UniProtKB/TrEMBL annotation:
Gene3D superfamilies: Spore Coat Polysaccharide Biosynthesis Protein SpsA, Chain A
Main localization of the protein described in the UniProt heading: cytoplasm
Main enzyme class: transferase
GO biological process, alphabetically ordered: isoprenoid biosynthetic process; protein O-linked glycosylation via mannose
Biological role stated in the UniProt entry: Cytidylyltransferase required for protein O-linked mannosylation. Catalyzes the formation of CDP-ribitol nucleotide sugar from D-ribitol 5-phosphate. CDP-ribitol is a substrate of FKTN during the biosynthesis of the phosphorylated O-mannosyl trisaccharide (N-acetylgalactosamine-beta-3-N-acetylglucosamine-beta-4-(phosphate-6-)mannose), a carbohydrate structure present in alpha-dystroglycan (DAG1), which is required for binding laminin G-like domain-containing extracellular proteins with high affinity.
Record region (Disordered): 1-26
Catalytic activity: D-ribose 5-phosphate + CTP + H(+) = CDP-D-ribose + diphosphate; D-ribitol 5-phosphate + CTP + H(+) = CDP-L-ribitol + diphosphate; D-ribulose 5-phosphate + CTP + H(+) = CDP-D-ribulose + diphosphate
Keyword Transferase: yes
Quaternary data: Homodimer.
Name assigned to this protein: D-ribitol-5-phosphate cytidylyltransferase
Boundaries of every D-ribitol-5-phosphate cytidylyltransferase C-terminal domain copy: 279-420
Entry's Gene Ontology molecular function annotations: D-ribitol-5-phosphate cytidylyltransferase activity
Highest taxon above the source species: Eukaryota
């Protein structure tokens, strides 16, 4: 009976606490960051064919929001400063594809090695590569990690806090693994297809990833295991127990460890990432009183929509940090139809390489004069924003426009501001290419 956690939770997905926000290959130092004083490396087996998705492309290479799934998983590990290297194991025919993904998204902690004919053979190749062995020897055995974390390439939402628990337990116990409660009863059938018996669900758990091992334990387990283990086995913890006598520490993992198994899971993963990216935005006012007033009103209205807005006059000096942490920007322009402020911001975003991993959203909110008389009499030209948006889209930046008319009627004005907040929230959440370059009326 196989209780490995491919699909232990049919009611998923669950949302990750934080999805990393930064450039490819970059480690993210947080004030609360854990300290690990021993070398840790990762093996990501990614040689599956993805038969259960019903797609021609293996699921680890399926793209959403402009990136393949495996790139999101790599990013989850690259952002952890104490992880020194990542070995991705792929089928030999996908070596060039994986290398291209690493280069395109500037993953810097990663190298690729060819896989084997089964899951265990592929993981073994990754372990050997970390020890300076295998087909593509690039490091000396003396550099081998103390702990090896093994994780599925199609589980993109792994969090640093849990990786820390796995790494520390593996160092102390020799092996550690994630488990989750079973949500369905497990039964055994007879060879004729009848019920044999069922298991008491409360006594069993689903084995999940990640799993961690000291290098020596997982290396020795693969050296000692049989050809039958290589060909038919799937559980690394079992090999450590059977061939090294190492009884793994089992740690209950968060619900975010679910695995992309079916086609619907790809849509769920995209939805999670979209929602995570849409939780906040930075509003740039240019310092004008009218823009600040509107920004403050938008901030209050957005709060009711569960979106956090930070309001700043510009992106210079200390405010430049938003270029490195935020995925959504709102430029407020008052009484002039020039796109110069937006174009300046687009240059700053391009220089910061912010659109490398995720599409950025930039929303230009143009506030014209009162409904009786526009102060400047200028109206933004739809063609102008369309041209700028078209060029920005080539750099993975989605530019939208919203036109808002100042009103002296307080109630009408509040309704308009709320409408802008709703449109802004929807644009950020959906990231729809179809509306790029359009000037929407609030």
């Amino acid at each position: 009976m196989n209780m490995e956690g491919d699909n232990c939770d049919p009611d998923r997905p669950a949302h990750p606490g934080i999805f990393p926000a930064g450039e490819g290959g970059q480690s993210y130092h947080q004030p609360w960051e854990r300290s690990v004083d021993f070398p840790v490396s990762v093996v990501l087996p990614a040689g599956g064919t993805g038969e259960r998705t019903g797609l021609q492309t293996p699921k680890q290479f399926c793209s959403f929001l402009g990136r393949p799934l495996i790139s999101y998983t790599i990013q989850s590990f690259e952002r952890v400063s104490w992880i020194q290297s990542i070995v991705v194991v792929v089928a030999k025919e996908n070596m060039d594809l994986m290398t291209d993904i690493i280069q395109r998204f500037q993953h810097r902690k990663v190298r690729v090695v060819p896989g084997g004919s089964t899951r265990h053979r592929s993981i073994c190749n990754g372990v050997l590569a970390l020890g300076g062995q295998g087909e593509e020897q690039e490091r000396l055995p003396a550099d081998k990690p103390k702990v090896v974390i093994i994780h599925d390439a199609v589980r993109p939402f792994v969090e640093e806090d849990f990786l820390y628990k796995i790494a520390m337990a593996a160092k102390e116990q020799g092996a550690a693994g994630a488990i989750r409660p079973l949500v369905s009863t497990v039964i055994a059938t007879t060879s004729e297809g009848y019920l044999d018996h069922s298991l008491e669900r409360a006594r069993y758990r689903a084995s999940e990833m990640p799993q961690g091992f000291t290098y020596d334990v997982i290396y020795q387990a693969y050296q000692r295991c049989t050809e039958s283990d290589f060909d038919f086995g799937t559980e690394c913890l079992h090999l450590a127990l059977q061939y090294c006598g190492t009884n793994a520490k089992l740690i209950e993992g968060p619900p975010t460890l679910w695995k992309v198994t079916y086609k619907r899971d790809l849509a769920a993963a995209e939805s999670i990432i979209k929602e995570t990216l849409s939780r906040s935005a930075c509003v740039i006012t240019g310092g004008s009183a009218g823009a600040v007033t509107l920004a403050d009103a938008l901030q209050k209205a957005a709060g009711a929509l569960d979106m956090e807005l930070d309001v700043v006059p510009d992106l210079k000096g200390d405010n430049g940090r938003y270029l490195l942490k935020e995925w959504n920007f709102i430029q407020v322009s008052v009484n002039h139809s020039s796109l110069s402020e937006v174009e300046s911001m687009l240059k700053d975003l391009e220089a910061a390489s912010r659109a490398l991993l995720h599409p950025l959203v930039v929303i230009w909110v143009h506030l014209s004069g009162s409904d009786e008389l526009s102060v400047s009499g200028e109206t933004p030209e739809p063609a102008a924003i369309a041209d700028v948006a078209s060029a920005a889209k080539l750099r993975n930046i989605l530019l939208y426009g919203i036109q808002l008319h100042q009103s002296k009627d307080t109630e009408r004005w509040e309704r308009s501001v709320l409408r802008v907040a709703e449109i802004t929230s929807a644009l950020i959440r959906e990231r729809s290419p179809a509306l790029v370059g359009q000037l929407l009326q609030a």
